[in-house]
Design a protein that fits this description.
The protein contains 12 helices and 23 strands. The protein is of the alpha+beta class. The chain folds into 4 domains: about 90 residues, 3-Layer(aba) Sandwich (Rossmann fold), CATH 3.40.50; about 55 residues, Dna Ligase, domain 1 (2-Layer Sandwich); about 120 residues, ATP-grasp fold, B domain (D-amino Acid Aminotransferase, Chain A, domain 1, 2-Layer Sandwich); about 80 residues, Phosphoribosylglycinamide synthetase, C-terminal domain (Glycinamide Ribonucleotide Synthetase, Chain A, domain 4). Strands 12, 15, 18, 19, 22 and 23 form a 6-stranded antiparallel beta sheet that branches. A 5-stranded parallel beta sheet has the order 3-2-1-4-5, with helices on both faces. Bound molecules: adenosine monophosphate and glycine (GLY). Glycine binds next to loops.
Length: about 425
């Protein structure tokens, strides 16, 4: 079987690597992929949102399975187009992906289905938003309603920070259409857990958990990013915590989407705050997390293509996982998540089995930066501590003239 992966980030590189190892898979294609994943997949020059060209390519190249990595093509309806063309695709329709695409939809959906989450208010009016902040007090969380690549969220600890975030979104249109309205959300306290599941209709098959580090700098300082590093497993939580999160969050979400006539197929991701009152949803995503995929997929011993196919055929695949730990650290362009230079050389990249490229292009045979998050280096080892030591040992070799990385991924679990 040939597999087509839509997207070109680190998550897609990890998907490509996983499929490339499968005895079920002949050729892995990526649209558009990136310069750093050319050894793993045949990269084709097709935009990830160009549904017409993607379906034409799949039909012409005997693609038995297409997997859509990022949220933007999902919300554009790429899966709908594949379904209409009678092609096998693992991912949600744009109707089902609304659980990620609109935070206000997600909040109202959770309310309808009694899925635990923080209290909230949606508004597009700056004065009303300010009044809400005055009434509720700080800390309070402010989110652009639509897609903002993980950057539209501010956890405001002062009224000034809240005001600045509301001005950016509602008055200065910093997030364009995505910031036409804001969601003001109760601040939740606890430890975070990213829990993803393979979902087809009401069948939910959970994966092992992961923890992401969203802030740009060490010690969880600085602005929110798409994610600066992750690890799996998350020893702070045991099987019963995960079972509770599946029962209270992932299963009712899948059931609710099916009940509302937008059944979900694909990867459902719950970003959870594990509070004193149990798990509460911070966000839903309609796809693998990035960088969570890069640390979870290397632990999957089951065959990914078979898991997806069996699920779509109506089965309930059982998953086997490596007991090893994986920890990965992102190297990003200096300036990210703000503005940064593109086209600067990426040199002295360490050798690693789990090296996933994202914003990487190629000029005259050398890698150059092409995005904010440039690469993720992960190591798999018997313990998180060993994986962490190995990752940071290797990253010492990376030329950081134009790149930076956090030096404390996993520190919250590893006391040294
Ligand atoms: P999101 O893009 O919604 O996942 O938010 C990005 C990050 O902001 C999360 O991973 C949390 O660290 C933080 N965050 C979001 N919502 C809340 C909340 N209600 N309470 C506390 N922290 C939050
Ligand atoms: N790492 C969080 C996300 O993929 O949205």
């Amino acid at each position: 079987m040939n597999v087509l992966i839509v997207g070109g980030g680190g998550r897609e590189h990890a998907l490509a690597r996983t499929f490339a190892e499968s005895p079920e898979v002949d050729t892995v294609y990526a649209a558009p992929g990136n310069a750093g994943m050319k050894q793993t997949a045949v990269c084709i020059d097709v935009n990830e949102e160009d549904a017409g060209s993607l379906t034409a390519f799949a039909a012409e190249h005997d693609i038995g399975l297409t997997v859509v990595g990022p949220e933007a093509p999902l919300l554009k309806g790429v899966v709908n187009a594949f379904q209409e063309a009678g092609l096998t695709v693992f991912g949600p329709t744009k109707e089902a992906a609304a659980i990620e695409g609109s935070k206000s939809f997600a909040k109202a959906f959770m309310e309808r289905h009694c899925i635990p989450t923080g209290t909230y208010k949606v508004t597009s009016d700056y004065d009303e938003a300010i009044r809400h902040v005055d009434n509720e007090g700080v800390p309070i969380v402010i989110k652009a309603d639509g897609l903002a690549a993980g950057k539209g969220v501010t956890v405001a600890f002062t009224k000034e920070e809240a005001d600045a975030a509301l001005r950016d979104i509602l008055l200065d249109d910093k997030f364009g259409e995505a910031g036409a309205s804001v969601v003001l959300e109760e601040y939740l306290e606890g430890e975070e857990l990213s829990l993803m599941a393979f979902v087809h209709g009401t069948t939910v098959v959970p994966m092992v958990g992961a923890q992401d580090h969203k802030r740009a700098f060490d010690g969880d300082q600085g602005p929110n990013t798409g994610g600066m590093g992750a690890y799996s497993p998350v020893p702070q939580f045991d099987d019963s915590d995960v079972e509770r999160a599946v029962r209270d969050v992932l299963q009712p979400a899948a059931d609710g989407l099916a009940e509302e006539g937008r059944p979900f197929t694909g990867i459902l991701y719950a970003g959870l705050m594990m509070t004193m009152d149990g798990p509460k949803v911070v966000e839903f995503n309609a796809r693998f997390g990035d960088p969570e995929a890069q640390v979870v997929l290397p632990r999957l011993d089951s065959d990914l293509a078979s898991v997806m196919t069996e699920l779509m055929d109506g089965g309930r695949p059982s998953l086997t996982w490596s007991s090893d730990a994986v920890l990965g650290v992102v190297a990003a362009s200096k300036g990210y998540p703000g503005s940064y230079d593109k086209g600067v050389p990426i040199t002295d990249v360490p050798d690693a089995d789990l090296l996933f490229f994202a914003g990487a292009g190629e000029e005259n045979g050398t890698y150059v930066t092409a995005g904010g998050r440039v690469l993720l280096l992960a190591e798999k080892a018997a313990t998180l501590q060993e994986a962490q030591t190995a990752v940071y040992g290797k990253l010492k070799g990376l030329d950081t003239t134009n790149l930076f990385y956090r030096t404390d991924i996993g520190r919250n679990v590893i006391k040294d």
